[in-house]
Amino acid sequence: MNRWLTGLLVFCLVGGATAARGGDLQEYLQGILGKLAPASGTRAAASPARPGTARDQLVEKLRTRLPASLQKVEQELRGVSREQEIAIGRQIAGNLLGAAPLVDDPGLQRYVNLVGRWVAEQTERADLPWHFGVLESPAVNAFAVPGGYIFITRGLYALLADEGELAGVLAHEIGHVLRRHHLKILRQGRLLDMGQDLLAKQIATSGKIQQLIGRGAEIVARSLDRKAEFDADQIAVVLAARAGYDPFSLPAVLQQIGHFAADDDRVALLFKTHPPPDARLEELDGRMGSRFDQVKGSGKTNRLYRLKPAARPR
Amino acid sequence: MKRFAIHWFVAALFMVSALAGTGTAEEGTAAAPPDARGQAVKPEAIRAEPFTDAREVGTLAKGDPVEIQARDGGWLRITSRAGNGWVRMLGIRRGEAGKARFTAEGVLGLASGRAGTGTVVATTGIRGLNEEDLQGARFAGVQVELLESYGVSRAEAREFAGQASLQARSVPYLPGERAR
After folding, report:
1. How far apart are alpha carbons A43 and B17 in whole angstroms?
2. Domain boundaries of chain B, sorted by first residue
3. What does pTM read for this prediction?
4. Does the interface ipTM go beyond 0.95?
């Protein structure tokens, strides 16, 4: 009986999704449900619902309500408001800071905010309340969180040669925020697990946001697709150039990162979640062509704030 | 200019002493550090100056080893058997020919930054920030407030850029990225 009901539900879902008007969600659901549909469809067709039964009423109910609910879910996700995006980002940022706190050096944190804010100023989302932080961790990595929270680890900062390279790294992360890459992950990965009321209502309480983003700050440990990383790289080159820095600053950092042993713990997460540095450089080469061959950095970029040694070795 | 030269001299002295101190310089200071070696990933023209239309002084074949002397924007000044001059940076992979990629040898640690040569010490056993750390992380409210207290205004950022004579330029996004 349970199996039969499951079959019926799947059948209804397919019907509902088909009835829903166009959109990513519909295609996505059909992709998954299409595989389940034939068996359950046959089963349902073999025992047609008799009119007037409770079963039939259930079918009817699902048929009429499901498309509307699905549409609403999709709308909510696509049109996550600026405030919601910031609230989601703040929760993730707070969790990430629970894993690695800020380096205890206000001068450093302030400096990174000045560089990052100047780069963000060159974008179509200059009005976001951008925040930048250096995390106390020997790991070599940087993270972007929705709403404009950007982090670089002490381990990566220590590899930088000048302010342009810092700008290049921050610009890559800014690129993820501009294109809402992590919000898209939430949309694609979590959709089917999420309660609909969570999305239908305003995302308000931190408990509900936590439900949306999964465990802790695991969202920043997820791999984006290769294209998203390549796009962020090319955005970084453009933004660095717009801000007056050497557009080849990020490529220089990528060449640097390529020197790490693949089994070095400090780069484990970075290498797991990103294409290899060589692949990124090759892709950048193809996309940049000769456009930037004559573009140099301007201004004095040798004012990179010097790291002080970690107060307590971890 | 003179002061600049003195700075470089002091920096070079420091580097030499650092290399000697840690004993990682394999063949003395004459050998290029591993980071300064590279190879062509595709055929590349070697030019007399770092410009697309500068005179061609040679051609690198794919796989040709080079020694990297300096970088200027998207150009590397190199020496090679095929000639000395400038080649496009993205046509060169850093690292030693014949050696496995990602092999790192180097001097000094992280706290002092890149240590001049740009090489990175390979270290296993230092815990990075891994998935378990991130999954198990709890919201740190005080830290978020601290982070937000460091925020700067758009006006402050512009002033900061002006202090270093950084000027905003109009550069369009590249066509490679397709709208989704």
Report:
1. 80
2. 2-94, 137-163
3. 0.73
4. no
